Request: fold
Amino acid sequence: MLDENCPIEEVREMFAGDRFATEACKCRVVEAARGHAVCEFDIEDVHLNAMGNVMGGAIFTLADFTLAIACNMGEEPTMGVSNSIQFFNASRGKKLIATCNVDKSGRTLGFYTVDVVDDQGVSVAKMTATCFRRS
Reply:
């Protein structure tokens, strides 16, 4: 999808098309490389559920957005086909940060893990994903 050595500005421009993540959830790309990505958002009222915690859907959106970047850098177009997310703790900070790393990248399947923490180091969630790559 994108050359693995392209500048971060080009990655941001390409993934600005993921409008729900970038406009509604306000996710930002911090790092992008083949099999690796870091994204974040500042926690705002729009991210909160009725209990005052970050809504699971907002956490999942951040994790999924980060996955999309990591699995498409330097690869054929790739899409998630199966995801599992575990929620560990409520965020105590003002920002959520997701880090995605490839566990195994094959010709047609990729396996990834996304860790979501807050800016105080609290582990909020972990997502594992299987992705399909068109070759």
Residues 8-133 form a domain with the Thiol Ester Dehydrase; Chain A fold (CATH 3.10.129.10). Residues 8 and 127 are 24 Å apart (CA to CA). The chain has one domain: 8-133. The two ends are 11 Å apart (CA to CA).
